[in-house]
UniProtKB/TrEMBL annotation:
Its main location: cytoplasm. Its EC number is 4.1.1.84. This is D-dopachrome decarboxylase. GO terms for molecular function: D-dopachrome decarboxylase activity; phenylpyruvate tautomerase activity. One of its GO terms (cellular component) is extracellular space. It is found in: Cytoplasm. Tautomerization of D-dopachrome with decarboxylation to give 5,6-dihydroxyindole (DHI). Keywords: Acetylation, Cytoplasm, Lyase, Melanin biosynthesis. PANTHER family: D-DOPACHROME DECARBOXYLASE. Belongs to the MIF family.
Length: 126
């Protein structure tokens, strides 16, 4: 599967209100993640879910949970670099410290993603 064939799915959930996000956050964060994961920004699916009732460690201080599902992107070593760079981006952009930023890297298979009325695996065979 080539770089162009991968379609990462990212969900950022936070207790921050929507007003705390820069107006171009989705575009800028997608582009940041595309560079980090070496994938086209056009292939990223990003859902930002602000204003949620959300706690880490029992407190409601500003916090972020990011789940990134992707085909063929993760390993024990690269996830360390990804965590650092994503946490730094979240701190710089949203003001949430890395102690309040949880990231879940979830490896998925191409047959687990639907696109164009079929699975990504079948779509890529065409």
């Amino acid at each position: 599967m080539s770089r162009e064939d991968k379609m990462p799915l990212a969900t950022l959930t936070t207790n921050l209100p929507d007003e705390k996000f820069p107006s171009d956050f989705n575009k800028a964060f997608s582009e940041f993640l595309a560079v980090l994961f070496n994938k086209p920004a056009a292939n990223f699916v990003l859902l930002v879910d602000p204003g949620r009732r959300f706690t880490i460690g029992g407190t409601t201080e500003p916090a972020v949970m990011l789940v990134i599902k992707s085909v063929g992107s993760y390993n024990e070593t690269s996830n360390i670099e990804y965590s650092k760079k994503i946490s730094d981006y979240v701190k710089e952009t949203l003001g949430v410290g890395n102690d309040r930023c949880v990231i879940h890297f979830q490896a998925i298979e191409a047959y687990e993603v639907g696109k164009h009325g079929t699975t990504l695996k079948e779509f890529l065979k065409k």
